[in-house]
Design a protein that fits this description.
The protein has 694 residues and is an all-alpha fold. The protein contains 34 helices and no strands.
């Protein structure tokens, strides 16, 4: 029986397998498989704690042993997350907290293992109620708060990019290379402490959000009292990291500039270099001569004075900070009475006075950030922030951030895709490192070809993420499913403020224009996911326009020429074959609403004359089914041939320029208090001062 097997496992002498990390790993997995029930979980957790204590006093252990220890700590979290285990473990919550604190005080456990145990304790506390959860969070974060909330530490570490590098940089950085006071050992320890402190804050916030979504209740509100120290640290850290990407910041890095780029482990993973069953880190380590390469999930080597250690810190901290800010942007109180008693309504109401800091975080030096960084910014923070913003805060927050951001993304994506589609080189002119040459030789992928593949992959991923943001603005979710489902069921709200896009149309028309131009341009880019999202956004934009009476308004002109041309040309793309039906629906709607304006475009195509066009309109009037109308549009365009449609798109470059639209183009009345960006674009020549948020 399982009880008998558990008894044998728990009585197994740990000392016998202390030197055999693979055996410990399998042993831990066995404990995880049988220890999930309430009557078994307590002894299993105690056994896992014993494994973590087994290396007390040992100076250093192997990488495999570290992995097995991390697995033991993670297994405690997995067991604590099971529904039936929480109440059983809560009876021993005091002991779990004391043992964890004791092991951390003696440094029997690493920071990553400590974070997993802390998260497990928070999960166990959450099974009891909000008050206990709040007390536990206060206890877990006390040490991190004491460190990060010290004014002296913030001033010396997070004042600007230079202060950050002096605190956590490496000796190769140009700004500290000739500084005799720089201590690389001290910087390594600070780097490790900040890294795991930020990760602890982010992972516990994400856990509370998960508890709220799965169980409901007020779980996420436990984080509100900690806004005053967590959010300022995250914002200041991100602004310092963003500064490093600008020309002045790169001068501070000097020879370490490559820490801003993909590491070899990430490159190997993206390029698919690694053999089946071999981790990217191990593959890179072996092909590069056996030197261990730390990854974002490991802190082995984080304290080392090496480029890879600093790279893992920079990229890991950016991603964690983005995700934390995205998580806390979802914090809100639904009940007005509870909100009044707490003095808190939502993230946006509370942080409104610090909007200039969030604006700077997003827009400052954004043109210097690489594609992956910008993608993670959109995915981790911008998208959740836009999605969670309450309607009464749209003007203050979205009216400030979206206009410049959408304009930047349109300029950036259209330029990059033009370079890619016209065959221009997308790689930077820099020599390959010795390690990259070794990887290229081992994988059979040349360094130059690998750079091109990485650039293309990064461009596609950034484009898809930005189109998800566009759909959030247009529909409320990343794929538009909710909008079209409600429309089909007749549940769609009718007021102009139903979606952010409808609000932009009335209040921030230039932002809506940037969004439309990007949407139309992305139809012509050969990427399936991008095209699918773009065509849905086009359907929504069309739904907001009034039927043309022949007057050539700026929006009607844009739709009849730019959008219509883009839709016709994208029918010829193999990447768009799976959703041609949706493309044909948009073409049908454009022809129906703006027939007088699109007629010159259709008549300019070969094999289409006025007689053919008249016959088409007569047939459309007789066919009522959507499928039949789609087929009529397809037959009309097939008369011209795919080559002509492609040539039409190349000639006009649809969406490459942002149209100058007015709210009246959408049938909306322009508000006298029309929203404009509340802040000027941040200058990128030097880093603006980092002010306190409170």
């Amino acid at each position: 029986s399982l009880e008998a097997l558990q008894a044998k496992l728990l009585n197994f002498p740990l000392a016998a397998m202390a030197r055999h990390a693979p055996i410990i790993m399998q042993f831990v997995k066995c404990l995880e498989a049988i220890g999930g029930h309430s009557h078994r979980v307590v002894p299993v957790v105690q056994c896992l704690f014993s494994i973590l204590r087994s290396d007390e006093g040992v100076g250093s252990v192997s990488e495999d042993k570290h992995a097995s220890r991390q697995q033991a700590a993670t297994t405690v979290l997995v067991l604590a997350s099971r529904e039936e285990a929480g109440p059983a473990l809560f009876q021993h919550i005091t002991g779990l907290m004391e043992q964890t604190q004791e092991m951390w005080g003696k440094r029997c456990i690493r920071a990553g293992e400590r974070n997993a145990l802390y998260e497990a304790i928070l999960v166990v506390s959450s099974s009891v109620g909000y008050e206990q959860q709040q007390k536990t969070l206060e206890w877990i974060w006390s040490e991190t708060c004491q460190h990060f909330n010290a004014p002296g530490w913030q001033e010396s570490t997070l004042s600007d990019g230079l202060s950050l590098l002096r605190s956590v940089g490496i000796k190769q950085c140009a700004c500290v290379a000739n500084d005799p006071s720089f201590d690389s050992v001290k910087a390594g320890k600070e780097r490790l402490e900040i890294y795991h402190g930020i990760q602890l804050i982010e992972r516990l916030a994400r856990r509370l959000l998960k508890i709220k979504k799965t169980k409901g209740g007020e779980a996420l509100l436990a984080i509100v009292p900690h806004f005053k120290w967590t959010i300022p640290v995250m914002v200041r850290l991100l602004r310092c990291l963003h500064f490093l990407a600008c020309p002045e910041g790169r001068k501070l890095l000097g020879p370490c500039e490559s820490v801003l780029e993909l590491g070899e482990v990430e490159r190997a993973f993206i390029l698919g270099m690694t053999p089946h069953g071999v981790s990217p880190a191990m593959f890179v380590s072996v092909t590069a001569g056996g030197a261990y390469v730390p990854t974002s999930s490991s802190s082995i080597g984080m304290e080392n004075d090496s480029l890879e250690s600093l790279r893992v810190f920079v990229r890991g901290m950016r991603d964690s900070a983005y995700q934390f800010l995205g998580t806390v942007s979802e914090v809100k109180v639904e009940d007005n009475n509870v909100a009044a008693s707490m003095g808190f309504k939502s993230f946006f109401d509370t942080m409104g006075s610090a909007l200039n800091e969030f604006y700077a975080l997003i827009m400052e030096n954004i043109e210097s950030q690489d594609e992956k960084t910008t993608r993670m910014l959109i995915r981790g923070f911008v998208c959740p922030m836009v999605k969670s913003c309450p309607q009464h805060c749209w003007r203050q927050w979205l009216g400030t951030i979206l206009p410049p951001f959408l304009h930047h993304m349109h300029t950036r994506l259209t330029a990059n895709w033009h370079s890619f589609l016209t065959g221009q080189r997308m790689t930077m002119n820099r020599g390959a490192t010795v390690q990259q040459q070794q990887l290229a030789s081992a994988s059979g992928i040349s360094t130059e070809h690998g750079e091109e593949m990485l650039k293309e992959t990064s461009l596609r991923e950034l484009t898809r993420e930005h189109l998800s943001l566009i759909l959030v603005i247009a529909t409320g979710d990343e794929m538009g499913h909710t909008y079209f489902h409600n429309k089909k069921k007749g549940k769609l709200a009718s007021p102009p403020s139903a979606t952010i896009f409808q609000w932009l149309v009335a209040e921030c028309t230039q932002a809506a224009s940037s969004l439309l131009a990007t949407t139309v341009a992305s139809l012509t880019w050969p990427d399936t996911d991008t095209g699918m999202k773009a065509i849905r956004a086009c359907r929504i934009a069309l739904g907001l326009t009034e039927k043309s009476a022949g007057s050539l308004g700026s929006l009607q002109s844009f739709i009849a020429k730019e959008m219509f041309t883009a839709c016709m040309s994208c029918l010829t793309l193999p990447s768009h074959a799976d959703f041609q039906a949706e493309i044909l629906l948009v073409l049908r709607d454009i022809i129906t609403k703006h027939s007088l304006l699109v007629s010159p475009v259709l008549l300019s195509l070969p094999n289409i004359d006025q007689g053919v066009l008249d016959s088409f309109h007569q047939a459309m009037a007789m066919k009522n089914s959507e499928k039949d109308q789609r087929n009529l549009v397809r037959k009309l365009l097939l008369r011209s041939g795919g080559a002509e449609l492609k040539a039409l798109a190349k000639q006009h470059s649809p969406g490459s320029k942002i149209p100058q639209l007015q709210s009246s183009d959408f049938g909306s009345r322009s508000n006298k208090n029309q929203a404009r960006p509340l802040l000027d674009t941040v200058s990128t020549s030097e880093q603006s001062p980092l002010q306190n948020l409170f």
